Amino acid sequence: MQNEPLAFRMRPRNITEIIGQQHIIGEHTTLYKMIQNGHVPSMLLYGEPGIGKTSIAYAIAGSSKLPFFALNATHAGKKDVEQIVTEARISGKVLLFLDEIHRFNKLQQDTLLPHVENGSIVLIGATTENPFHDVNPAIRSRCGEILQLKRHEQKDIVQLITVALQDKERGLGKYTIKISDSQIERIALASNGDARKALTLLESIYYASDEVEGETIVVDSTIEHLSNRIGVYGDKGGSHFYNLLSALQKSVRGSDTNAALYYLAHLLENGDLIAVCRRLLVMAYEDIGLANPSVGAHVYAACESAKVLGLPEARIPLANAVIEMCLSPKSNSAYSALDAAINAIHEGKTGDIPSHLKDAHYAGAKTLGHVGYKYPHDYPIGTFGGWVDQQYLPDNVNLEFYKPVIAGEEKKMAAIYDKLKTFKK
């Protein structure tokens, strides 16, 4: 057992040993009470790596009297599933933990689903991806609960580390280790809410530390060196990555410069520069828009510079772009207006293009009535250029899509827009 990683050895053996995730399986929860009373429902556990999905599944198995099986959907075959189905027929009911359940293929589902539905197989599925996006609806419908796990709080990680240091059977308790409370706090902080990383880091620190007269001495420099990238979770292209992109955009939209830089840093540490640049460009036009039209060009230049420079230097122009967007006036009026026009079309609010707007650059256009267009440049209006009152929308589409936001540069555009409306008959 000592050859197994510390994180594996310290998995809770039953639900009373679970540390953290009290909102899901604390003593006050219905799930805890059901399991204690002998009933285990099928469920989906959703969350980032290292926050307890597998541990909870094994703890539930340890608290139940059901035969327990564990599969990983990335490499489990039809025969694996058939063996569990056979065992379910013999035993009457079994508990199956299926990791990476979002990778479950149709053949596996067809074999397993009827038995989950009739209750002979209790299914606990675990996924790092959003189950509403990536888990087959047939699976979701047969799982009574979809439980979203959270990153562990620092106090939970401290408790977990302390238990591992004290446990003489499974942990490091049989060794004499000199480690301070502040050093335990530093390890907990570095793990960034990931229990597996915390225990892996603790184990690495133990083996990297010097032994003096039978006592292992933990020093700060060892913790610092091994903690360098412990907080980075690289699931490029997964749900967490898209959550980071979403958090970045919403922080910029909310003008929170520090939060935006935090999420940008996390995204760049994950290494997908192209996805980050793509999102920054969207933000420049979606959230800054007409309030500061020059931002679009600035962000584009920053993104192109970043692609040429590559990481880590790419972070420099991107930091400039993010801060400028955070502190810029903001408007979503342009794309909101276009979306309103698109919705109007989908709702059937369409009509024939006015004849004077139709193409007249061919012989016979007059015969079709494509006449009467007034060329605005022939009608100067102050310093604006040219404008003439004529119909542009179809007869039965008398709608106003654009609603100016009175912010930044759009103030001037809004004033012109309102003034032109007063000229119309």
Describe the fold and architecture:
- The protein has 425 residues and is of the alpha/beta class.
- It folds into four domains: 21-148, 3-Layer(aba) Sandwich (Rossmann fold), CATH 3.40.50.300; 154-226, Helicase, Ruva Protein, domain 3 (Orthogonal Bundle), CATH 1.10.8.60; 239-326, Zinc Finger, Delta Prime, domain 3; 333-423, Orthogonal Bundle (post-AAA+ oligomerization domain-like).
- Helix content is 49%, strand content 9%.
- The strands form three sheets. A five-stranded parallel beta sheet has the order 2-3-4-1-5, with helices on both faces. Strands 6-8-7 form a three-stranded mixed beta sheet.
- Helix 5 links the parallel strand 2 and strand 3.
- The longest helix is centred in the middle third of the chain and has 16 residues, at 273-288.
- This is Replication-associated recombination protein A.
- Keywords: ATP-binding, Nucleotide-binding.
- Belongs to the AAA ATPase family. RarA/MGS1/WRNIP1 subfamily.
- It holds the Pfam family MgsA_C.
List the helices and strands and how they pair.
Layout: H1 6-9, H2 22-25, H3 30-36, E1 43-46, H4 53-63, E2 68-72, H5 78-91, E3 94-99, H6 106-117, E4 121-127, H7 131-134, H8 137-142, E5 145-148, H9 154-166, E6 177-178, H10 181-190, H11 195-208, E7 210-212, E8 215-217, H12 220-226, H13 239-253, H14 257-270, H15 273-288, H16 294-309, H17 315-326, H18 333-346, E9 380-381, E10 385-386, H19 410-423
Parallel strand pairs: 1-4, 1-5, 2-3, 3-4, 6-8
Antiparallel strand pairs: 7-8, 9-10
Helix pairs in contact: 5-6, 9-10, 9-11, 13-14, 13-15, 14-17, 15-16, 15-17, 16-17
